[in-house]
């Protein structure tokens, strides 16, 4: 990403067909998308473009400005999340910050970065370089790491803040104005894009969890019903066995009582008969 990917802004009045037709002039497109809300809010009209070749990206950036339907669209390289911080991806600036610049020889440092783009101003002591084109800064960040005399040169973008104080002797009003203007052009578009991606991810996670809870609930209900049916069946079986045992026991006792009664009656009759015969 970055060497082939671009961020596009100010697309509220540009159709994707028109945008594709324009961008295809510079090479084969592998991906193109436009994001905007229903009200065409200026901060919500942005898109992403990816070329098959890095050469197409370079040519596209070198032929700025790009105007469609009478309006200039904003374009910048899309720095990869893996190697660039959020401020580096959001901010558009001509100023490159060199950490601990005085560790390196001044002329060597200037000559090295002069090969990468046209320099407007070089402040060795403060450790920054202002280039003529903000795209130069993005290209330098994409090409990290940089080495000078076998030592790594750590670079980043100048990140403006509300507390940024411009030296009265530097005459940087033009650069500061440009930084603030370009920064606000893409700040909200990128933040909205990241928020929508985050929101979509979380919504998918929530939906998955809801389905999983429902599945577990149904599974638990099925298990409970099976165990309940088994318990009822066992109770019914035990009840039937108990009744059968009671009936069989009751019948056996009744038969014994009848047999005893008959035997007792026969014995009494026999004794009565013998007694009568003795009397005569």
What does this structure look like?
Residues 4-80 form the RRM domain. Residues 192-226 form a coiled coil. With 280 residues, this protein is an alpha+beta fold. The protein is built from six helices and eleven strands. The chain has a domain at 1-78: Alpha-Beta Plaits. Strands 2-3-1-5-4 form a five-stranded antiparallel sheet, with helices on both faces. The chain has a four-stranded antiparallel sheet with strand order 7-8-6-11, with helices on one face. Strand 7 (119-123) and strand 8 (128-131) form a beta hairpin. The longest helix is centred in the C-terminal third of the chain and has 107 residues, at 173-279. It is elongated, with a radius of gyration of 45 Å. The protein starts with a strand and ends with a helix.
List keywords for this structure.
280 residues, alpha+beta, Alpha-Beta Plaits, five-stranded antiparallel beta sheet, four-stranded antiparallel beta sheet, 6 helices, 52% helix, elongated, coiled coil, mRNA 3'-UTR binding, Nucleotide-bd_a/b_plait_sf, RNA-binding, RBD_domain_sf
Corresponding CATH architecture of the domain at 1-78? 2-Layer Sandwich
Termini Cα gap: 137 Å
Give a count of the beta strands, DSSP E runs of length 2 or more: 11
Shape: elongated
Enumerate the strands of the largest sheet in spatial order, edge to edge or round the barrel: 2-3-1-5-4
Coiled coil: 192-226
Domain RRM: 4-80
Keywords: Coiled coil, RNA-binding
Protein name: RRM domain-containing protein
Structure described in brief:
The chain has six helices and eleven strands. With 280 residues, it is an alpha+beta fold. It comes from Adineta ricciae.
